[in-house]
DNA sequence: AAAATAAACGCAACTATGTTGCAATTAAGG
DNA sequence: CCTTAATTGCAACATAGTTGCGTTTATTTT
């Protein structure tokens, strides 16, 4: 099964039409080596109407196909979901790491599972944003 | 030492002039029972010029007097820094918890220190954003 | 206590993203 | 191929981010 067919299946599974724009957006996000900044998506898809990009991204987020990977309220980054996510539940088991030097953001699996406990509180979701210097920039 | 004197000292320590506006902003942030949403700051300080609020907030963030406490790219929340922070290093040992019901955001100390390790990477900062249901809303 | 100075402030202006409505277009199923 | 419901583009509006500049003010110096 080629990549385009895979994206089409992914979309149809979420009751989203597999339009050329959506397939194009997905290939842009998926082919980026790390989490892709919003501005970079815009660059690559400058022929998209601004609102279309906005709505397409929202549809993908809603469908649990991509997720946001922002670190400390900077520009928003996007990445493909690896696990099966839904609108309500983006349950990633990874952390987001941003290199302060090259500004690259990536999804990193953590070996030791992080256990966070807060008394008298029901925890639904935990997002961990790590920043520092990546291997290439040390 | 009363609170206003304390804020004045806090500002001067960072080479920031202790102006009425800055003291007012600090008292608004400090008197809020949890992390205060940006919109709430605006409400309470509607007599501030928009740019002044923007610049004042930035100065406080820069000086390590307040910090952002956003959870998942929603509205930005602000809270007083408890530790001694600087522009480069906001080293909080707490996590940010957002109740999905009442939308209140608070800084929570975690008893068990979170140890995150990523191979071949220098970690400078870790932000943990937790969302769920708070005690009052259960 | 008054003057000097460097910072803070308000205003105008511009940029960018978020968001909605509506008409035109198009994907998907029969 | 035709129907229909979803998607797209355009226009329009809202709000936050950001900069420059002239005026005001907090703090220092005389």
TrEMBL record, chains A, B:
It holds the Pfam family FUR. Transmembrane segments: none annotated. PANTHER family: FERRIC UPTAKE REGULATION PROTEIN (PTHR33202:SF7), ZINC UPTAKE REGULATION PROTEIN (PTHR33202). This is Transcriptional repressor. The lineage of its organism: Bacteria, Pseudomonadati, Bacteroidota, Flavobacteriia, Flavobacteriales.
């Amino acid at each position: 099964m080629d990549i385009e067919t895979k994206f089409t299946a992914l979309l149809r599974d979420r009751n989203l039409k597999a339009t050329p724009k959506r397939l194009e957006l997905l290939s842009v996000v998926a082919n980026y080596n790390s989490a892709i900044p919003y501005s970079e998506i815009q660059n690559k898809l400058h022929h998209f109407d601004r609102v279309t990009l906005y709505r397409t991204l929202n549809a993908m987020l809603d469908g649990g196909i991509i997720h946001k990977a922002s670190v400390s309220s900077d520009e928003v980054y996007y990445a493909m979901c690896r696990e099966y996510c839904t609108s309500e539940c983006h349950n990633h088991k990874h952390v987001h790491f941003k290199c302060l030097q090259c500004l690259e953001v990536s999804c990193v699996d953590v070996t030791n599972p992080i256990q966070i406990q807060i008394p008298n509180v029901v925890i639904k979701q935990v997002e961990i944003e790590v920043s520092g210097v990546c291997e290439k920039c040390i």
